[in-house]
Amino acid sequence: MGSATESLRDLIRAAGGGLLVGLPLLFTMEMWWHGFLLPAWKIAVLLAVAFVVVVGYTTLTGFRRDRSWTQLLVDTVQTFGIGAVIALVALVAMGRIDTSTQLRDAIGQVSLETIPVAFGVSLAGAQLAAPEEGSDAGGSPTGDRAGVGILGRLFVAAGAALLFALNVAPTQELLVIAVEADWWLMLLTMAASVLATLGIVFYADFRGGRGGPHPRGIWRSRPLEVPIGETLAAYAVSLLVAALLIWAFGWTSGMPLDINLRQVVVLGVVASIGAAAGRLLVGDR
Amino acid sequence: MRQNAVEWVVLALSIAVIVALVAALVVDAVNDEGAPPRPTIVVHEADARATEAGWLLPATIGNDGDQAAEQVTVEADAEVDGVSQTSQAEVDFLPSGASIEVAFGFTDRPDGEVTVRVIAYRLP
């Protein structure tokens, strides 16, 4: 097997994963607008957070765990490079970027759209790849290896929360719901988010879910080993991710704090479900 | 044991974040007496400027009521060179406590005072 063929295969898979995850946002008007509305440094902050998430995610899920830090960083830069190229091609193909577009606006749009596409590229590398020949990746999608630990699990939860919430954060719907909903609906929404994610991760018997009695019994477990403990921590992480996005997408300007907090609750629904999916992805390791 | 301590700290912080959010929502609800929207318009004449597209007068639209208003239309009237002119601005969402920046446009610097008023709004 020639390594050129292998590289090509990797690239096609990366592009497939990138498009799979990035398409909804490539087709979202608000993302284009925010590409030129947002100050450059806010986009840079989002990109930096996304970069850290991808580095952490790749380390924790152990895709080619034997590689060095330098290799890991090079791979992550490559992931974002592929993501940027896909985003650029897609935006040009959709007529969002043409010869009349200001350079700064084009860069803003490509940078913002690169984030979801790069998540997809990274996911394609770590999760969607067929197990390599000779590797003992068996039942678990990422193979057998040392556990990610509860803090690692929360980190993956944050990354997945960011990925999911990114799809909703730029949309006007978030403001409409926040302005129009009654306060008790907000509290119910919070309770529902906690219950839904508790159910998804521990009681729905998804692949990667962790149902069943805990080996050490509930009273002798560590605080975050207990389902409700992990769920509350993951929900808090999701809320923080939602708050980051509310800030980054400029919802805080001109809007009172209480509306922003309501937006955090509403976006927190999406973020927490994403966080649950992320925790399913790393399974019980 | 140290791992355990870290986990307790993470859990405590998590619960603190959630409780703080719930508390903020409840406090906000308690302070809400359901007063109808009360749009306010503050013009910033010191920041007014002449552009090629006319004379622009920045203003801040606020809401001192408890309820939110939608599709708030505001109007500014002034006399320019002896002819009265009207300029309109619309705000899609105006929650209580919001402050939205807009600008009214006139062909030139008005002669006298600019008067502002709310034309209409819609309840959510």
Structure description:
The complex is a heterodimer of chains A (285) and B (124). Chain A has helices spanning 3-26, 29-37, 40-61, 69-93, 103-126, 149-166, 173-180, 183-203, 227-248, 257-282. With 285 residues, chain A is mostly helical. Chain A folds into two domains: 1-143, no CATH class; 146-285, no CATH class. In chain A, helix 3 crosses helix 6 (149-166) and helix 4 crosses helix 5 (103-126). The model of chain A is unreliable at 133-145 (pLDDT under 50). With 124 residues, chain B is of the alpha+beta class. Chain B has two domains: 1-31; 39-122, Immunoglobulin-like (Sandwich). In chain B, the strands form two sheets. In chain B, strands 1, 2, 3 and 6 form a four-stranded antiparallel sheet that branches. Chain B has a three-stranded antiparallel sheet with strand order 5-4-7, with no helix packed on it. In chain B, a hairpin with a 2-residue loop joins strand 4 and strand 5. The mean pLDDT of chain B is 92. Chain A binds chain B through residues 150-151, 154, 175-176, 178-180, 183-184, 186-187, 190, 222-225, 229, 232-233, 235-237, 239-240, 254-259, 261-262, 264-265, and chain B through 3-4, 6-8, 10-11, 13-15, 17-18, 21-22, 24-26, 28-29, 32, 68, 70, 93, 95-101, 124.
CATH topology of the largest domain in chain B: Immunoglobulin-like
The end-to-end span of chain B amounts to 53 Å
Number of strands of chain B: 7
Question: Could you say which overall geometry of chain B the principal axes of the C-alpha atoms support?
Answer: elongated
Question: How many structural domains are formed by the residues of chain B?
Answer: 2
Instruction: Return the string of H and E elements of chain B.
Output: HEEEEEEE
Share in helix of chain A: 55-70%
Number of strands of chain A: 0
Q: What structural class do you assign from the helix and strand content of chain B?
A: alpha+beta
Radius of gyration of chain A: 20 Å
| Count, helices of chain A | 10
What is the end-to-end distance of chain A?
Answer: 33 Å
Instruction: Please tell me what the overall shape of chain A is.
Output: flat
Mean of residue pLDDT of chain B? 92
Give a quick account of the main beta sheet of chain A: strands, pairing sense, barrel closure.
none
**Low-pLDDT sequence parts of chain A:** 133-145
Largest sheet of chain B: 4 strands, antiparallel
